[in-house]
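Lab notebook: predicted structure, single chain.

Context: the supervisor wants predicted structures on file for every construct in the current expression panel, including those that have not yet been purified. This is the next one on the list. No modifications to the sequence; it matches the entry in the shared construct table.
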Amino acid sequence: MTQEKDPMPDAAERILEAVMFESWLRFSFLEESPGEGPDDEPRLLIRLDDAARQRLAERESHLLPLARLVDGREASFENSREAVCRFVLEELEGRSIPQGTAATILDSRDFQFRLQLFNNWLQEQESILERTPHEFADWRIKFAQWRSRPDIREQTLAAVSPTEHPAEAAGDGGAQAPRLLDAADVQEDVRR
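Prediction complete. Output recorded below exactly as produced.
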């Protein structure tokens, strides 16, 4: 009798890839647009030109639907979260992750740990990523190398694990870190 492989870690990694890709799009294709409205403040939009769309179709075709969801839209937390959730529900669930599992995966400690790792990496690398354009494949490689370091895994685990003294583990006075993406997001998207 063969033992079946647990699909949840692979599913968590696929959803994390979508989060990473959407972040990469914001870093790579951000454009300032004149404001429209009473305050006339400029807006930051994600804009892909034809050459970028073609490169993505060749190199990241499985993520192209996510690029289409953010192309031409304002770069905001709400738009990012909505695009990733729609992509997960419309493109991943029932195909590359088991049907009906997106909410469970998003709420899992495993996914939240992976998401925290990515957010930590992004904050640490932000100035480098803003200065030099990188392909998404480079992001994957750099993040994989960074997160495989034992010290990084231990620090992140300490920061996200409940302890008797959370301020000591997280170094933030014990403040609960806000969840960036969870089951409520995909359930809310389903209701729309």
